[in-house]
Design brief:
single chain; about 300 residues; alpha/beta; Rossmann fold; eight-stranded mixed beta sheet
């Protein structure tokens, strides 16, 4: 299964670009799932169809869904509270449950919610040839793409810190009882951290797998869009992620921006989507549009 992220500045045409790509891939015989993880969903307008958190087939080979991020925020909070209760059940006397309500104010909740939704989609629908994500605007997208690798750094340091605490407890146990304790082997906190490391490592590997995961940046031929795309490329490069394709949407025939892109982003293919006088709405509209791109190259 291949995973594709369409990202870029808000309003540049990520939804219409991802919809057209998904449509043409399905037309070529691939089984494609298109999922909007942008809180401001647009796919229902493009396909003139209501969507929810379950895939709905809109044509042979193409299913579409729109993820409810609020649902995933609630799930993250519920799962976290459950983990806390299980790990610290021996400390119920301290009334830790009173503090769980503060979790909903934690920074980064939306990014973790997006990550949970991504993981669920990739795992649950692994029988598709392609899973395409229409992403939120730049800031949130970059944060959730960075989250696995950032979380791994933090979790590995946390393991060291936890092991140090347990070693100290072992020394105390040995002094008191005359024998070595077994804190490391039975510690539920350490086991939970190690489980999280496995989860985030799997996602980090997926994001860095340039063969099966592709990030496509969509921009318009204007200075603000070009400037934000530079930032996206720099940030993703720091994360070890490549951008093999850039879609220049609303291309008006002026090659000036194309030359800048080709010079600054060497090795990245520029796909031109011509400026369209009409809105991209409905299957007939998608069917009538050309992709100006060889899907066989994309397959490889």
């Amino acid at each position: 299964m291949k995973v594709i992220f369409f990202t870029g500045k808000g309003g540049v045409g990520k939804s219409s670009s991802s919809a057209l790509f998904a449509y043409k891939l399905a037309e070529s015989g691939k089984k494609v799932l298109l999922n909007s993880i942008d809180p401001a969903h647009n796919l229902h307008d493009i396909f003139e169809c209501k969507f929810n958190f379950s895939p709905k087939e809109v044509k042979t080979g193409l299913s579409v869904m729109e993820t409810n991020l609020d649902k995933w925020v609630k799930k993250y909070l519920t799962d976290t509270e459950k983990d806390f209760k299980e790990v610290y059940k021996y400390q119920e006397a301290f009334n830790l449950h009173k503090y769980f309500k503060t979790l909903k104010y934690s920074p980064g909740l939306e990014e973790y919610a997006v990550l949970l939704a991504l993981e669920d989609t990739i795992e649950k629908y692994s029988d598709y040839d392609y899973v395409i994500f229409d992403t939120p605007p730049t800031a949130l997208t970059l944060k959730f793409l960075a989250l696995p690798s950032v979380s791994l750094l933090w979790l590995r340091e946390l393991v060291k810190f936890r092991q140090m605490i347990l070693s100290k407890k072992d020394i105390v146990t040995k002094i008191k009882n005359g024998k070595k304790g077994t804190e490391l082997e039975k510690d539920p906190v350490l086991k939970r951290i190690e489980k999280l490391i496995v989860t985030y490592q799997k996602l980090a590997n997926r994001f860095e797998d340039s063969k099966n995961t592709k990030i496509i940046v969509v921009l318009n031929p204007d200075k603000l869009s070009l400037s934000e795309s530079r930032d996206i490329l720099a940030r993703l490069k720091d994360l070890g992620m490549a951008i093999p394709y850039i879609i220049l949407n609303k291309f008006n025939g002026d090659e000036t921006v194309c030359k800048i892109l080709e010079k600054e982003f060497k090795g990245t293919e520029i796909i031109r989507f011509p400026e369209n006088d009409t809105e991209i709405v409905g299957l007939d509209c998608l069917d009538g549009l050309g992709l100006a791109f060889d899907l066989m190259n994309f397959e490889n």
